[in-house]
Amino acid sequence: MTTTAPGPTAPVGPGEILLGLNTFGDAGVDAEGNPKPHALVLRELLAQAELADAVGLHSFGVGEHHRRDFAVSAPEVFLAAAAARTSRIRLGSAVTVLSSDDPIRVFQRFSTVDALSNGRAEVMLGRGSFVESFPLFGLDLADYEVLFEEKLELFDKVRAQQPVHWEGRTRPNVHGLSVFPHLENHLLPTWIGVGGTPESVLRCAEYGYPIIFAIIGGEPRRFAPLVGLYREAMGKYGQPMQQIATHSPGHVAPSDEEAREELFPHWLAQRNRIGAERGWGPASRGEFDAMCGPEGALYVGSPETVARKIVRLKENLGVDRFDLKYSNGTLPHESMMRCIELFGTEVAPRVAELLAAA
What we know:
This protein has eleven helices and twelve strands. It has helices at about 40-55, 75-85, 105-115, 135, 145-160, 200-205, 225-235, 255-280, 285-290, 305-315, 335-355, and strands at about 20-25, 60, 90-95, 95, 120-125, 165, 175, 190-195, 210-215, 245-250, 300, 320-325. The strands form two sheets. It has an eight-stranded parallel barrel, surrounded by seven helices. A two-stranded antiparallel ribbon has the order 6-7. Strand 9, helix 7 and strand 10 (about 245-250) form a beta-alpha-beta unit. Helix 1 runs parallel beside helix 11 and helix 10 (about 305-315) crosses helix 11.
């Protein structure tokens, strides 16, 4: 496996944190309450990416799903369009479901985005918390683990940009073939997204990739042992240290009350819809308010509140990057645009001020 660390994922300083955005292209509703066409959602998503670039945020990631709730099923196609409409922001997936895709094609598509964006592409690989892609592409859920393990091994070999020699049981073997196009002067920045299991952390460290933790419930500080495990394992495997990031939902508005009242009905509807599929009990306003509190996993509030919560995350976990999942169910496009603007123009500079003063 390769151990060459790409520059864009090198750790940042102790008094810094990079701020990015994630979205699944949540399919909202129009003013009459009718579901928006996915095509319209994707066009609105492009405007959101342009705004994120304009306000100076570090990264913009779109997650792959294959269900009515979300419009993004082909992240790289969207990112190629965003590459032509942005100039500075890093563009990536959040995540690419590697288990149900072909690692060679994933690399080719992202290396193409990297060329079109002048070196701004990154890929986040994951197994996927939703499993609709498995039956859609004729895969057996019984192979959930081996599919990811084998495809990650092959992807790592392809990423090295050398002739590939690989054998496995989940796809045809590759004997000495090269994969194109190559990237210019660097390897494709590649993250692994994890939900919080030690096995996933150790796998990420074995490959020497940067890691992003999806923290969507509970208290972020409880991930400290897993962050420590990643650092320890990177040393054990002799890997150069990479960035550590977290991803959490949230919403920014001019005041705490406005942010909570604006987000809550959309959060509740999405949480209960997905919860019903997974056997969770119904959510409540009390649960929402607790998660919006200082120690909870929802980054909801005024720019000052959200900035202080990000600083607390930096203090508790020492992470290099925080990605806000700013789309939440049927939250209107206009509300998301205002959130993005506030996140870039008020939250980001306030975080920098607070960290500099610490």
